[in-house]
């Protein structure tokens, strides 16, 4: 098993209100704080990952899929969840090896495999399989965050979702590392708050890698707080955006070069300042955006309906771009989008 080596990043401070994922449950008020490990800048990413792993263990145990319904205001499993897909989540004991498989399908689907250090980040697409052992990862367990494209046919969506497979040769319960849950949440909130306030930057293209050599230490730290479970840039790219006004605004973004014919897609999903969905109209797929040739446009806090989202002042949203043709080329589009701000528009 590999030894954990984490980057040391300066500590930050701010507070926001966090809503905990339904899969993980609320912090255990009976935990003995004196017996818990403090969360520090050196161990935060491990502690944040442990929070997710332990939450699934508490809810479903090890080696058990939890297949969820579409994301909504009342159904959020991870911070800044994606409405485009339905999630399937599991933690798997790979101490003696495990095989993961995504069956063939005409719709976008994947299994995202994450280790205990929020690394590895292997993505299996339609028709692919992968064998994983403890020698491949940090730790002996992996977190599966599978995504199945949600279509109008919910029955078909659920059938594709439940067809996802894994076979593990060991089945030991995941042992929590003992970090103080309240400290994990507080540390997360202060990092997110710095990004939201513009005091720190976050770029997703080098935040999610297989090893520490593949990530930028700054982005690795902040991504664990801002969007734990994000995909590597070759599969998806993300642009976190800030909403500085609760008045009607128009946003115009360049079209990225995606594998549109292979079910690539783009969307914007809107959150409160704490990163959790607050409104019913929180999601705009690219099909609902206005097609302006080389650009897409949409509005916030304007006339309700397709192509508009309601979001509080100080809130934020994430533009997601799935299946880039060329990851580096799409990264240039990401850089352009990240500098865009909303402009006033009529109600």
- Give the percentage of residues in beta strands: 15-25%
The number of domains is 2
Going by helix content, strand content and strand pairing, the class is alpha+beta
Helix proportion of residues, in percent? 10-25%
Low-confidence stretches: 1-34
Q: What best-fitting shape do the alpha-carbon axes yield?
A: globular
Average pLDDT level: 87
The tally of beta strands, per DSSP, is: 17
What's this model, at a glance?
This protein is an alpha+beta fold. It has five helices and 17 strands. The protein folds into two domains: 20-232, no CATH class; 235-347, Sandwich (Jelly Rolls).
Describe the structure.
This protein has helices at about 45-60, 155-160, 180-195, 215-225, 325-340, and strands spanning about 65, 85-95, 100, 110-115, 120-125, 130, 140-150, 165-170, 235-240, 250-255, 265-270, 285, 290, 295-300, 310, 315-320, 345. It has about 350 residues and is an alpha+beta fold. It is globular, with a radius of gyration of 19 Å. The strands form 4 sheets. It has a 5-stranded antiparallel beta sheet. Strands 10, 13, 14, 15 and 17 form a 5-stranded mixed beta sheet that branches. Keywords: Signal.
């Amino acid at each position: 098993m590999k030894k954990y080596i984490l980057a040391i990043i300066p500590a930050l401070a701010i507070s926001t209100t966090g809503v905990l994922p339904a899969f993980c449950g609320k912090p255990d008020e009976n935990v003995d704080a004196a017996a818990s490990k403090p969360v520090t800048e050196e161990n935060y990413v491990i502690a944040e990952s442990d929070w997710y792993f332990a939450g699934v263990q508490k809810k479903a145990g090890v080696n058990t899929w939890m297949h969820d319904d579409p994301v909504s205001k009342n159904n959020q499993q991870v911070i800044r969840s994606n409405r485009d897909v339905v999630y399937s989540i599991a933690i798997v004991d790979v101490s003696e090896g495990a095989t993961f498989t995504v069956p063939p399908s005409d719709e976008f689907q994947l299994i995202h495999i994450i280790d205990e250090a929020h690394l590895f980040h292997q993505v299996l697409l339609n028709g692919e399989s992968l064998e994983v052992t403890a020698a491949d990862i940090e730790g002996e367990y992996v977190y599966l965050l599978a995504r199945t494209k949600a279509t109008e046919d919910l029955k078909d969506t659920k059938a594709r979702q439940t067809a996802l497979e894994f076979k593990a040769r060991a089945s030991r319960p995941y042992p929590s590392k003992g970090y103080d849950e309240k400290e994990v949440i507080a540390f997360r909130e202060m990092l997110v708050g710095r990004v939201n306030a513009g005091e720190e930057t976050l770029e997703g293209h080098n935040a999610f890698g297989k090893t520490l050599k593949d990530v930028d230490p700054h982005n690795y730290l902040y991504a664990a707080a801002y969007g734990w479970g994000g995909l590597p840039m070759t599969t998806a790219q993300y642009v976190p955006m800030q909403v500085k006004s609760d008045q009607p605004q128009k946003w115009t973004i360049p079209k990225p070069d995606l594998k549109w014919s292979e079910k690539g897609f783009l969307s914007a999903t809107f959150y409160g300042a704490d990163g959790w969905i607050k409104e019913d109209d929180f999601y705009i797929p690219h099909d609902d955006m206005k097609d302006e040739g080389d650009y897409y446009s949409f509005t916030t806090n304007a006339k309700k309906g397709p192509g508009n989202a309601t979001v509080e002042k100080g809130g934020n949203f994430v533009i997601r771009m799935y299946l880039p043709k060329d990851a580096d080329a799409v990264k240039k589009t990401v850089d352009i989008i990240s500098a865009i701000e909303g402009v006033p528009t009529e109600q």
